[in-house]
TrEMBL record:
Belongs to the SCO1/2 family. PROSITE patterns: THIOREDOXIN_2 (PS51352). The keyword Nucleus does not apply. SUPFAM superfamilies: Thioredoxin-like (SSF52833). Keywords: Copper. Gene3D superfamilies: Glutaredoxin (3.40.30.10). InterPro entries: SCO1/SenC, Thioredoxin-like_sf, Thioredoxin_domain. Pfam families: SCO1-SenC. Residues 43-205 form the Thioredoxin domain. This is SCO family protein.
Amino acid sequence: MQRLRTSRRIWILVALVVIAGAASAVGWSLTRPRAPGFRGAAVNPPYPAPDFTLVDQRGEPFRFSSLRGKVVALYFGYTFCPDACPGTLLNFRQARQLLGNQADRVQFVFVSVDPDRDSPERIREYLSNFDPSFLGLTGKPAQVTAVLRQYGVVAEKVYVEGSSAGYLMNHTASVYLIDPNGMMRVMVFYGQRAEDLAHDIRQLL
């Protein structure tokens, strides 16, 4: 278990390096502005969040750009995840509670990095343990891979001998915050508090 935790930490660091490299290539960077700015890392300059179409937890096609007009908290994870994913979804639930009436103007989105196992039905059941208002998306492996590349997300299978799950996924664990105009604005890193997430969402509302 310690080895898996160490591996996960390493891959989170690798993911941040990949994101930083992609940012440099397209001319934007991650910065931490002075208060009263964001508590996560600001994307500078903001850029349009890539659009895509996947299948939601009801089995219906869903186009990401249809969320324009809302702040979007976007996270890439998987339902068999033992730590980062449930921790982030608990943060989503707490942040939504902290937002109060403003939560109606926010959509929390979970995109599976494990389409081989994460069917719409499984994602629906999984998200119901946190908040039924959360949007879950999945698709065919090639479709999901294309979305991961668009967002610079690292996701790799790690086979675990003797595990009933068969394999785990090392993956980028940051939350992408997108403003109502569809612009990528903030990266909230794994380990930041729900209060930080709610604060940055309020800044975008």
